[in-house]
Amino acid sequence: MTKTDNKALFRDTGAEEGPRAPRESRLREFWRLLRRNRLAFSGLAIFVFFFFVAFSGLVLTSGTRPVFDPAIVRLQEKLRPPLSEPNLANLLPKEIPTLGVYLFGTDDLGRDVFARMLQGAWVSLTVGFVAVGIAVLIGIGMGGISGYFGRNPVRVDHILLAFIVSLGGGLLIGGAFFAGGVLLLIGSTYILFSLWRKKWSGKQSAQKLLRLLHKDTISIDTLIMRIVDIMLCFPVFFLILTVVALLPASMYNIMIVIGLTSWMGTTRFVRAELLSLREQDFVTAAKALGVSDWRIIFRHMIPNAMAPVLVSATIGIASAILIEAGLSFLGFGVPPPHATWGNILSDGKRFIFDAPWLTFIPGFAILIVVLAFNLFGEGLRDILNPKLRERY
After folding, report:
1. Mean pLDDT of 294-312
2. Torsion over CA of 131, 132, 133 and 134, rounded to 10 degrees?
3. pTM of the predicted structure, to 2 decimals
4. Which pLDDT score is estimated for 331?
5. pLDDT score recorded for residue 217
6. Domain containing 217: what range?
7. How many distinct structural domains can be found in the chain?
8. How far is residue 134's CA from residue 305's CA, in Å, rounded to a whole number?
9. Residue 131: CATH number of its domain
10. Rounded Cα distance, 253 and 258, in Å
């Protein structure tokens, strides 16, 4: 066939002559759509700047001789306004601010608010990411089990046994040795009794009770979703406030408590995605090849369900920062000497008219950072959803 015949064939079939343009990669497509969404791009820019500031705060405010020391007390320089110059005659050399000026002013103890804001940025970032990381891990595990094994039944007596043993172990760890020991004794007795039941020849009433416990079952999906519903019934902030008030004051306790009470949304997202993915052909093919269930869940299905999880995690970071700031404002957050935006705001509420910068500076910082995470999360939702992506 000649070159002229090729051209005629392309004209007859409506096909274009010559090589086609290479298909745009997913990363390039994501970046193009993100730049078109100005609010989401602005949120990403603020997040990157906040991350840089927080990391700088860790480096510049840590160590034995930090560049910016948020713990230096200068009572003679208290409540100085922003951009004010220090009175060098009243200060020791180590008390002179690094920048030569109080950029954000000083608090009621003469501490540099700029140095405390730097340290608080790292605390907020750490609490937000670690708490959301814990919540995402729990949510992926619970949602994956619910979505994939949802139709499988589990015996009621096994559920009660797990609850009794877990509660007993928790009481022992918490110091309630008698109550915890009793519950563990009940659990171990039932386990031994169940192992012996095949050889046991007791009364018929006890045998009926055993058959009743072994017969009653509930699906895994129903069990996990009812746990999620129960957790959603509690006011999360007040539940966290109660738990934190009972535990020793620590940044690690706050991160763990926030993470353990924030996994429900991720569980629902992962469950919904896996319910649709488990009927797909690639899952059926993996089962036919003998791939284990856990490998199918975490290697093949979870990566395809991560889009809503990323959106939920991004918005969850903003919620965790708000919760930590609220706890610190009420005096139940990260303990001194660590500075957080919440306790800076709490220290300034007594001087809202005399030193308004102590309230406005951390308040605006919390507002801007939380807004940035929310805008970026909404932009991710629009970009990762094919139906909403068509608008861009």
Report:
1. 82
2. 60
3. 0.75
4. 81
5. 62
6. 35-71+111-389
7. 1
8. 18
9. 1.10.3720.10
10. 8
